[in-house]
From TrEMBL:
Keywords tagged on the record: ATP synthesis, CF(0), Hydrogen ion transport, Ion transport, Membrane, Mitochondrion, Transport
Pfam families for the chain: ATP-synt_G (PF04718)
Family membership noted in the UniProt record: Belongs to the ATPase g subunit family.
Protein's recorded name: Mitochondrial ATP synthase subunit G protein
Species for this entry: Rubus argutus (Southern blackberry)
Xref: InterPro entries: ATP_synth_F0_gsu_mt
GO molecular function: proton transmembrane transporter activity
Classification via PANTHER family: ATP SYNTHASE SUBUNIT
Length: 122
């Protein structure tokens, strides 16, 4: 256990050294490549305007998303009506998707309880 801790500390130290040497260069390169997205001057008013644009753009996309969801639901309903014609592969994919959703729900519940299985903290 102690050797694993030393290895972890060593790797963390190496990562810190790498970031201290190359972090500034990476930051400058990233800003330079994406400077077309930077608003000058960055005022409170401009930030407020951009956040409103993002909010209302997302809000305006809801009808399209609703339409896509309705198409997906119609497809699932048609599959359910013709389930006797369903292939094993399709049923397997549906079962894996359901299992994945269930697992994400369980992981979310465990995370919500502070990563404890029973809900009691030790």
């Amino acid at each position: 256990m102690a050797s694993q801790l030393r290895q972890l500390q060593s790797k963390a130290c190496q990562a810190t050294q790498f970031l201290s040497k190359h972090g500034t260069t990476y930051y400058k390169q990233l800003i330079e490549q994406n400077k077309q997205y930077i608003q000058e001057p960055a005022t409170v008013e401009k930030c407020s305007e951009l956040s409103k644009q993002l909010f209302y753009t997302r809000l305006a996309s809801l009808p399209g998303r609703k339409e896509s969801l309705q198409k997906e639901l119609e497809y699932v309903k048609s599959l359910w009506k013709n389930r006797q014609d369903l292939k094993v592969e399709d049923a397997g994919i549906a079962a894996l998707f359901g299992l994945e959703c269930y697992c994400w729900f369980c992981v979310g519940e465990i995370a919500g309880r502070g990563f404890s299985i029973t809900g009691y903290h030790v």
